[in-house]
Amino acid sequence: MSEATLFSFGAVIFIIVFTGATLFGMASLKEFQERNK
Questions:
Q1: Please, what is the end-to-end C-alpha distance for the chain in angstroms?
Q2: How far apart are CA 37 and CA 10, in angstroms?
Q3: How many other β-carbons are positioned within 10 Å of the β-carbon of residue 36?
């Protein structure tokens, strides 16, 4: 396995995890704001 393959694979996983975390954070924040109105 070459370093470029490993790097692109890691980048894809990082993007997926980052997107999931961002969506989860936004949903939690929205719920938090609704509760504190």
A1: 53
A2: 41
A3: 6
pLDDT digits (tens, 9 = 90+) for 1-37: 799 999 999 999 999 999 999 999 999 999 999 998 7
pLDDT for the residue 37: 78
Angstrom distance (rounded) from CA 15 to CA 8? 10
Distance (Å, rounded) from C-alpha 3 to C-alpha 13? 15
Report d(CA 16, CA 24) in Å as an integer.
12
Q: Measure the CA–CA gap between 32 and 24, rounded to whole angstroms.
A: 12
